Amino acid sequence: QLQLQESGPGLVKPSETLSLTCTVSGGSIISSNYYWDWIRQPPGKGLEWIGSVYYSGSTDYNPSLKSRVTISVDTSKNQFSLKLSSVTAADTAVYYCARRGVAAVPGYDYWGQGTLVTVSS
Amino acid sequence: EIVLTQSPATLSVSPGERATLSCRASQSISSNLAWYQQKPGQAPRLLIYGASTRAAGIPARFSGSGSGTEFTLTISSLQSEDFAVYYCQQYNNWPPITFGQGTRLEIK
Is B89 in Cβ contact with A113 (below 8 Å)? Predict the structure, then answer.
């Protein structure tokens, strides 16, 4: 059974960089069939796509966040990571990592449990 | 960017009744739409992809329909565990992947 687990600080100061890692277990991140994505959800609000990474390292980002976001993959550790720079209170959210199919099942079929990141001094 | 508009924002339905949730896209997305269920404190759960294909393990009471710009999620006979927030998501034109704002399904 595939599992995804987010890890990283739960509290980040304004103007600093938010860093999270998603560890994938029960399956390999090296697959041409999937994208590995980050999605966030501010408290009480809806879902916002942050960006995607492919096992090759190819990335796509939400244009609204593109100037501040870096997503990378480490296939040797079966992990992918998110960095969001210059954070403000508006970046306070539950951050999810998730797997999205390229073709066969193109939705998000596996999700991490989510991790709350609060931006506050 | 494709904007998805869900309606209604809140839907009140009695257990055993049918619920119909709508999702409208700002431009045609063919059948490249998924639906998710989210309960408090949990990650979303994939229900439907390709507008009408149930994901693995999803009960048959959940069905999706539509193409182009108009989509519907129908829950045929509501069970207590179905009361949650539902989101639609498009993957036709990306980046960005976009989600609707959600419909809260509550017990009447």
Answer: no
Q: Return phi, psi of residue B97, to 5°.
A: -60, 135
One pLDDT digit (tens) per residue for chain B, 108 residues: 999 999 999 999 999 999 999 999 999 999 999 999 999 999 999 999 999 999 999 999 999 999 999 999 999 999 999 999 999 999 999 999 999 999 999 999
Which residues on chain A place their C-beta less than 8 Å from a C-beta of chain B?
A: 37, 46-49, 51-52, 60-64, 96, 98, 100-101, 105-109, 111-114
CB-based contact A68:A84 (threshold 8 Å): yes
Q: Do B95 and A60 touch (CB under 8 A)?
A: yes
Sequence-distant (6+) residues with CB within 8 A of B8 are B22, B103
